[in-house]
């Protein structure tokens, strides 16, 4: 297997990839953005990409949601949950009072804003392509235009030339980022485990009162719970949106299959992005009227009547 991830080494994306069995010994090619990582999957250069999709504090990662929706022929085959801890690093000898500008990934910056406001209220923020890229930028010799970077503690272990100015600087100690492993469309559908998630992208079919309700009731009527729903602009015109949705269950479950059939009728452009095991292993509560047996029994009943 050949994998890619948002690099360089030391990002949270790499930590998520290393949680995949076998990934440690596999070929791991860093990418400079989520878009290029997914393009490598699309072109067949790699088999799969590990990309961030949502953070418990900052919400959805728009770059990922948009790129997955746009590529169309991709499949999510796995998810990983990584607890997020941030540190502030700088080249050896740098003092806190020397720091005028700090670089990191925009999602990381959003998660340390409170700490920065308290401890370094006057610093400028310089966006970085990832947390580790911002930290490694400090090592070149030439000034990168900032004196410190926010990154994972792993980066400090990998680069002893960097000193840690502060640890645990995240505003929320329980922050977790969810990553998804994205493969090509021909990837084998993971087997249902009883604790699965299904991700779909649904264009809002027509802009009229109740259009969103028509989509949601496909899930509600079959007892399928949603664990994430986000609207994103299609980019075509103001007011044109698609929904990115995670639903509890696997397409192999009768209730999910039925909900997706209903969705396809309401919004024919719906894209199936994958059914895969939940990282937390939590099985959904399924009422007796929404089990596979109940759906099969109802199907048989109609078949008998039709003769
Ligand atoms: O820059 C990294 O280390 C990443 O893996 C990206 C990313 C993100 O996109 O949210 C991952 C986890 C953290 O929430 C901050 C940054």
TrEMBL record:
<dbReference type="InterPro" id="IPR018528">
    <property type="entry name" value="Preph_deHydtase_CS"/>
</dbReference>
<dbReference type="GO" id="GO:0009094">
    <property type="term" value="P:L-phenylalanine biosynthetic process"/>
</dbReference>
<dbReference type="GO" id="GO:0005737">
    <property type="term" value="C:cytoplasm"/>
</dbReference>
<dbReference type="GO" id="GO:0004664">
    <property type="term" value="F:prephenate dehydratase activity"/>
</dbReference>
<feature type="site" description="Essential for prephenate dehydratase activity">
    <location>
        <position position="177"/>
    </location>
</feature>
<dbReference type="InterPro" id="IPR001086">
    <property type="entry name" value="Preph_deHydtase"/>
</dbReference>
<dbReference type="InterPro" id="IPR002912">
    <property type="entry name" value="ACT_dom"/>
</dbReference>
<keyword id="KW-0057">Aromatic amino acid biosynthesis</keyword>
<dbReference type="InterPro" id="IPR045865">
    <property type="entry name" value="ACT-like_dom_sf"/>
</dbReference>
<keyword id="KW-0456">Lyase</keyword>
<feature type="domain" description="ACT">
    <location>
        <begin position="200"/>
        <end position="278"/>
    </location>
</feature>
<dbReference type="InterPro" id="IPR008242">
    <property type="entry name" value="Chor_mutase/pphenate_deHydtase"/>
</dbReference>
<keyword id="KW-0584">Phenylalanine biosynthesis</keyword>
<feature type="domain" description="Prephenate dehydratase">
    <location>
        <begin position="2"/>
        <end position="184"/>
    </location>
</feature>
<dbReference type="Pfam" id="PF00800">
    <property type="entry name" value="PDT"/>
</dbReference>
<comment type="pathway">
    <text>Amino-acid biosynthesis; L-phenylalanine biosynthesis; phenylpyruvate from prephenate: step 1/1.</text>
</comment>
<protein>
    <recommendedName>
        <fullName>Prephenate dehydratase</fullName>
        <ecNumber>4.2.1.51</ecNumber>
    </recommendedName>
</protein>
<keyword id="KW-0028">Amino-acid biosynthesis</keyword>
């Amino acid at each position: 297997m050949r994998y890619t991830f948002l690099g360089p080494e030391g990002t949270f994306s790499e930590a998520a990839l290393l949680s995949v069995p076998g990934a440690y010994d596999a070929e791991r090619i860093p990418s400079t953005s989520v878009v290029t990582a997914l393009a490598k999957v699309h072109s067949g250069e790699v088999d799969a990409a590990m990309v961030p999709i949502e953070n418990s504090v900052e919400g959805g990662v728009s770059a990922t949601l948009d790129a997955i929706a746009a590529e169309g022929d991709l499949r999510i085959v796995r998810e990983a949950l990584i607890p997020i801890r941030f540190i502030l690093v700088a080249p050896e000898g740098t003092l806190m009072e020397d720091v005028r500008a700090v670089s990191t990934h925009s999602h990381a910056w959003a998660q340390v804003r409170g700490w920065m406001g308290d401890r370094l209220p006057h610093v400028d923020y310089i966006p970085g392509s990832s947390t580790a890229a911002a930290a490694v930028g400090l090592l070149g010799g030439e000034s990168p235009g900032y004196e410190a970077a926010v990154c994972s503690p792993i980066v400090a272990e990998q680069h002893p030339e960097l000193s840690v100015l502060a640890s645990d600087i995240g505003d929320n100690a329980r922050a977790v980022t969810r990553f998804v492993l994205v493969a090509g469309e021909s990837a084998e559908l993971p087997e249902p485990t009883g604790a699965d998630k299904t991700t779909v992208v649904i264009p809002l079919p027509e802009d009229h009162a109740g259009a969103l309700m028509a989509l949601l009731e496909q899930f509600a009527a079959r007892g399928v719970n949603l664990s994430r729903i986000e609207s994103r602009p299609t980019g075509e015109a103001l007011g044109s949106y698609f929904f990115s949705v995670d639903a509890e269950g696997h397409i192999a479950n009768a209730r999910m299959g039925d909900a997706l059939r209903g969705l396809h009728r309401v919004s024919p452009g719906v894209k199936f992005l994958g059914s895969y095991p939940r990282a937390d292993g939590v099985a959904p509560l399924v009422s007796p009227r929404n089990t596979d047996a109940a759906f099969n029994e109802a199907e048989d009943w109609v078949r008998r009547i039709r003769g």
